[in-house]
Amino acid sequence: MRTLALLPLRVLYALWVVLTFLVIGVIALALLVVLPRLQQRRLAARALARAFLAAAGMPVRVKFAERLPAGQCVVACNHASYLDGIVLTAALPPRFAFVIKREMAHFPLAGPLLKRLGSEFVERFNRQRSAADARRVLRNASLGGSVAFFPEGTFTHAPGLLKFHAGAFVTAVRVGCPLVPAVLRGTRRALPPELGMPAPGPIELELLPPLEPPGESQHAVSQLRDRTRAEILAALGEPDLTCCDDIDHPPDTERVRSAPASRP
Known about the structure:
- The protein has one domain: 3-Layer(aba) Sandwich (Glycerol-3-phosphate (1)-acyltransferase).
- Helices cover 43% and strands 12% of the residues.
- The chain is built from eight helices and seven strands.
- It has a seven-stranded mixed sheet with strand order 1-7-6-2-5-3-4, sandwiched between helices.
């Protein structure tokens, strides 16, 4: 009975969230078109992402922000909702580029916004294109940029952590920069994966202690990936949805040559 009584309020709230998202999205698209510099566009996107989350009643708290290195690094975060990218945009400094599945490039409104923010789109299903995308991400990171990954590549309806693809860890190992595991909490409840009605409430991004790559070999990539996943799984407190021993070798990563990191 209480659920039925609250249904009109939930519907009104959902309409408010959708309307707010569309209005801020249009503003963001206009600003990102006219602002000439990437840094300006990212600062604008960060401010608008914070404005949207505040207006939606989803305040974001960053826990242990001091753990994020001042210089170049890679952030690897769990993935639970379509909100996750907005939350990381609001929470991380504007020096970060995001590595996103290529399908997102074709989404109305989201695709053009992501392109103007310098996002790196990667193919998940075509091996040849996936290898080319991996080389491009690595080449751009070797110039000194910081990047954020969702190494699961997708999310499921059920809570839990999927297996990790190796892209984030190949990048950290080849470039030689710290990798920061990160844990998102609250986004699955705020916007369920099945695109149910949104719900207000706090969202938290916890940054775990940075990890240094244990070498430059393919074995070092696997070690870093497995340690990162174990750290995130322990902090997240959700089920392990796959076997940690399922080693994932992305196509042609062995052929990607190391490039010296340019640190700020």
